[in-house]
Write a structure and sequence with these properties.
Elements lengths: L9 H14 L4 E7 H9 L10 E8 L1 H4 L2 H11 L4 E5 L13 H6 L4 E3 L3 H10 L4 E8 L1 H16 L5 E8 L1 H10 L7 E5 H7 L4 H8 L3 E4 L3 H17 L4 E3 L11 H10 E8 L3 E10 L8 H4 L15 H5 L31 H7 L5 E2 L2 E2 L7
Parallel strand pairs: 1-2, 1-7, 3-4, 3-5, 5-6, 7-8, 8-9
Antiparallel strand pairs: 6-11, 10-11, 12-13
Helix pairs in contact: 1-11, 2-15, 7-12
C-alpha cells in the first residue's frame, strides 16, 4: 500500500508519544473498539510507549468473539446435515459451541468450505443446484454491506438453494450500552475507522454529548492509533467531549450512502445477543420479510435460545473493558490457540489471541506474560 510506511515510522510515533507525555497530567482509561486496533497495539507495543497513567482497554469489536453460542450451535447443526455445503470464514471453525465446534464437524465429514468473500458462497450455490449452500454471515457494518449485496444478488438470481445464518452487529449501540453501565470505567473511545467508513459518525455526536466522553474515529496503523490517543487525551485534559475524525483519509461524517441504502434494503434493526455480554437493544440486523426465504435459521427450523457460555472464560469482562486477558487465570495455560476456552483466543481479532501471539511486546507492570506450557 502506497505511503503505508509513513504510518509505521518510528520517529513519528515517538514524537507523538513525547507529546502525550507532555499533555497528560493524570490517569485516563481509553477503549479501542476494534479488534484490529487491539492487535496493532499489541503487535507494535504501543501501550509501552504511552505515559504510565494512560491505560488502553479492549472493546467488543471482534465479530467472532461476540457471535452468540446459539449461532455456533446452529451452524454446527446445519453443517452436519447431508446435502449441505456450509461456508464460513476460517477463524469461526474453532469457536466453541456447547459441545463441539465446526472444525470437528469438518473432520467428521461435513462439507465445510473456508471462504474469503460471501460471493464465493453465492457462486457455490450456482455451481451446486442440488445442494443447500449456507453462509455464516457474521460481523459489523463493514461485512454486513457485503452480505447485503450477496443476499440481494441471490434474490435477483432466484437462488433457492442459498441461505445465510445471520449474526450481524451494530457498533454505536454497543458503545451506548458500555457507557450506560454503572461499572463503566471508560473515559474516551477510539472508534473503528472501517465501520465509520460505512456508517459515518453522525450518530456518535449524541453519544459524546450525553455521556461526556470524547470519541475519536481512528485508523489501524501505529501512528493512527497513538494519534487517536493523543486527540482523546487533549480533549479530556481540556474538559471537552466531542467527536473527532483522525481517519480522514477514509472516513467522512456522512459515510457511504450507497452502502447504507443497501443495508436498509436487506436488513432491519433488531435487538442482538452478544456472546459473553448479553442482549443489547437495537444492536443487531436481521433480514427483512422480503428476504426471509434466505434465512437459514428459518429454513432449517433452528431452535431459538440464549445459552449461557460459561467455561471459565472471562470474555464478557474483557470485551467490556473491565479486565484484560492477562487477568484470566487460564490465559496461556488451560486456554491457548490450540485449546481455546472462548472465542477471544480463537479469533484473528480477539484480545486474548493478540496478547498470546504478541506477548513479547505486551507486559504487565514490567513483567512478561506467561508462555503456554504447550508452546
Amino acid at each position: 500500500m502506497k505511503y503505508l510506511q509513513e504510518y509505521r515510522n518510528g520517529d513519528c510515533i515517538r514524537t507523538v508519544a513525547a507529546e502525550l507525555e507532555k499533555t497528560s497530567s493524570r490517569p485516563w482509561t481509553l477503549m479501542e473498539i476494534c479488534g484490529g486496533q487491539t492487535h496493532a497495539i499489541a503487535k507494535y507495543g504501543l501501550q509501552q510507549l504511552l505515559p504510565p497513567g494512560i491505560q488502553l482497554v479492549h472493546g467488543p469489536g471482534c465479530p467472532v468473539c461476540v457471535t452468540p453460542q446459539e449461532i455456533i450451535d446452529g451452524a454446527i447443526t446445519i453443517a452436519a446435515m447431508p446435502d449441505v455445503i456450509f461456508c464460513s470464514y476460517g477463524d469461526m471453525l474453532r469457536v466453541p459451541g456447547s459441545v463441539s465446534d465446526l472444525l470437528q464437524v469438518k473432520a467428521g465429514g461435513g462439507d465445510i468450505r473456508i471462504i474469503y468473500s460471501p460471493l464465493q458462497a453465492l457462486h457455490l450455490a450456482e455451481q451446486n443446484p442440488n445442494k443447500q449452500v449456507v453462509f455464516l454471515a457474521i460481523g459489523f457494518e463493514t461485512t454486513a454491506t457485503a452480505n447485503a449485496l450477496t443476499l440481494s444478488l441471490a434474490k435477483q438470481k432466484s437462488l433457492h438453494n442459498f441461505s445465510a445464518l445471520i449474526s450481524q452487529f451494530l457498533v454505536a449501540p454497543a458503545i451506548r450500552s458500555i457507557c450506560a453501565r454503572k461499572d463503566c470505567q471508560i473515559q474516551g473511545f477510539l472508534a473503528a475507522g472501517h465501520v465509520c467508513a460505512i456508517t459515518g459518525y453522525e450518530q456518535y455526536h449524541q453519544l459524546a454529548e450525553n455521556y461526556h466522553i470524547p470519541i475519536v474515529i481512528t485508523g489501524f496503523e501505529p501512528l493512527d492509533i497513538i494519534e487517536g490517543v493523543l486527540r482523546c487525551i487533549r480533549q479530556l485534559e481540556g474538559g471537552h467531549y466531542r467527536v473527532e475524525n483522525q481517519y480522514q483519509r477514509a472516513v467522512t461524517q456522512a459515510g457511504n450512502r450507497t452502502a447504507q441504502s443497501l443495508l436498509k434494503t436487506v436488513f432491519k434493526i433488531s435487538a442482538q445477543h452478544w456472546r459473553g455480554i448479553g442482549e443489547i437493544p437495537t444492536s443487531g440486523l436481521i433480514l427483512k420479510e422480503e428476504y426471509a426465504s434466505f434465512d437459514a435459521a428459518r429454513r432449517f427450523n433452528l431452535p431459538t435460545s440464549n445459552r449461557a457460555d460459561n467455561r471459565g472464560c472471562l470474555s464478557g469482562e474483557i470485551l467490556l473493558g473491565l479486565k484484560k486477558p492477562c487477568d484470566c487465570p487460564h490465559f496461556a495455560q488451560k486456554c491457548h490457540p490450540q485449546q481455546p476456552l472462548g472465542a477471544p483466543m480463537v479469533s484473528s481479532e480477539g484480545a486474548c489471541a493478540a496478547y498470546y501471539h504478541y506477548r513479547d511486546q505486551v507486559s504487565v507492570n514490567g513483567s512478561a506474560l506467561p508462555n503456554s506450557p504447550n508452546r
